[in-house]
Specification:
By secondary structure, this protein is α+β, with helices and mostly antiparallel strands. Helix content is 22%, strand content 40%. An eight-stranded mixed sheet has the order 2-3-4-1-5-8-7-6.
Length: 139
């Protein structure tokens, strides 16, 4: 990590891809790229299961719903499998969220909350971010 990152975003933490069949998606990344899953977790609060595939210092986050009420279930029903959100690493999630809101971005989370891997996260609405759901991730 650089000592003086440009702005709030220090790294791309993960690119999240919504999938219907998590095992099939993991198998694709393993067979196609020799990629390795380094973390798996069920995030009860979001009703999702994730598998993180390591790519250098970042991850591909394969994401599947664990219930029909999950926002990822709705996403899959409406749009099918594909790019769901981009997670950017930040030093201070609360500060980055406040700065984004002050600059006019619409927050989905009004305050930072627990994410997977013990991270602290906040989401920004895609409508105010050129169609891409953005997650701010503090490790
Ligand atoms: Co994420």
């Amino acid at each position: 990590m650089t000592s003086q990152p440009d702005g709030q975003l220090t790294e791309v933490d993960h690119v999240a891809i919504a999938v219907s069949d998590l095992e099939a998606a993991i198998s694709f990344y393993e067979r196609t790229f020799g990629a390795k899953v380094v973390h798996r977790e069920v995030v009860e609060s979001d009703a999702v299961e994730e598998a993180l595939v390591k790519v250098a210092d970042s991850y591909i986050q394969l994401l599947t719903p664990t219930s029909d009420g999950s926002t990822v279930a709705r996403f899959l029903a409406q749009r099918g499998e594909g790019l769901h959100h981009v997670g950017y690493r930040v030093k201070d999630c609360a500060a980055a969220l406040a700065a984004a809101q002050a600059a006019g971005a619409r927050a989905i989370d009004e305050a930072p909350r627990p994410g997977s891997r013990g991270t602290t996260v906040a989401f920004l609405h895609p409508k105010s971010a050129f169609g891409t759901l953005i997650e701010l991730v503090q490790e």
